[in-house]
């Protein structure tokens, strides 16, 4: 799926006309617990070229249309295999398919978060956190610069492929920075990710090659703090 500038404007226009908005949820709400919307590749709220020069258009198109779609396909395959296992009462591959379920579910959720919490450089929301989110970052990390330093270090040093994530942790009502390896290892139970940077090589290699640190430094220009603030408020309930 290609979402060019024209279709972005059309989508924005539909939203303004009253089409359902996501609000504080990552996914559009469905009347059914496993509604079909969840298995759809979400449209980007901008065009593939709109994050230039931070992330190039070709990387965005491949990442979104092929990699993210692949995680959705993998999630569906795992769920179908598990349904077949229940039907046949043959659980010989339960470990394999449970691992696939977690990996691909993580890929779908984290990429959906990744797209939504970015915006074109210099657009509304990219100037830094404000309001209650800014206050919480200062409270839990000491300052925005200290938060950014920890988050960037986490992103630079994820072993292999993975993510740096900002979570809201409801157990003690605070924000924490974590790493995730692949899409699911190092999960923090109960915590809700509200910001994440993908540091798999497929996210940056065409433009930055092995210079992951340069990609991490540039990425801060495209963080959509307005969306992060919405997800923070939603996570707090
Ligand atoms: Fe990715």
List keywords for this structure.
237 residues, binds fe (ii) ion, mainly alpha, three-stranded antiparallel beta sheet, minor pseudopilin epsh fold, 2 domains, Helix Hairpins
Helical residues, percent:
40-55%
Domain count: the total is 2
- The CATH first-level class of the largest domain comes to Mainly Alpha
Helix and strand element order: HHHHHEEEHHH
Structural category:
mainly alpha
Give the N-to-C terminal Cα separation: 34 Å
Based on Cα principal axes, name the global outline.
globular
The CATH topology annotation of the largest domain reads as Helix Hairpins
Task: Report the sheet with the most strands, covering strand number, pairing sense and barrel closure.
Answer: 3 strands, antiparallel
Q: Quaternary status of these chains?
A: single chain
Corresponding CATH architecture of the largest domain = Orthogonal Bundle
User: For the largest beta sheet, what order do the strands appear in spatially?
Assistant: 2-1-3
- With helices defined by DSSP (H or I, 4 residues minimum), what is the helix count? 8
Mean of all residue-level pLDDT scores: 90
Q: Radius of gyration, Cα only, in angstroms?
A: 18 Å
| The CATH superfamily title of the largest domain | Fe,Mn superoxide dismutase (SOD) domain
Parts with pLDDT < 50 across at least 5 consecutive residues: 1-20
**Strand percent estimate:** 5-15%
């Amino acid at each position: 799926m290609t979402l060019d500038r024209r279709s972005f404007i059309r989508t924005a226009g539909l939203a303004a006309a009253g089409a359902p908005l996501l609000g504080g949820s990552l996914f559009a709400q469905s009347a059914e617990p496993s509604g079909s919307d969840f298995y759809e590749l979400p449209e980007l709220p901008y065009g593939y070229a709109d994050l230039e020069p931070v992330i190039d258009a070709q990387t965005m198109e491949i990442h979104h249309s092929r990699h993210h779609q692949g995680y959705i396909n993998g999630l569906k395959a795992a769920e179908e295999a598990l349904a077949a296992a229940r039907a046949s009462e043959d659980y010989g591959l339960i470990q394999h398919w449970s691992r696939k379920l977690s990996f691909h579910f993580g890929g779908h959720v984290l990429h959906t978060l990744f797209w939504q919490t970015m915006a074109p450089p210099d657009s509304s929301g990219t100037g830094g956190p404000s309001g209650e989110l800014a206050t919480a970052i200062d409270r839990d990390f000491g300052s925005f610069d200290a938060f950014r330093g920890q988050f960037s270090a986490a992103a630079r040093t994820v072993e292999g492929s993975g993510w740096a994530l900002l979570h809201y942790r409801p157990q003690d009502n605070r924000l924490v920075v974590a790493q995730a390896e692949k899409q699911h290892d190092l999960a923090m139970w109960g915590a809700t990710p509200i910001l994440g940077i993908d540091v798999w090589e497929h996210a940056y290699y065409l433009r930055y090659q092995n210079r992951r640190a340069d990609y991490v430094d540039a990425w801060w220009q495209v963080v959509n703090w307005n969306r992060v603030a919405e997800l923070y408020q939603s996570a707090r309930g």
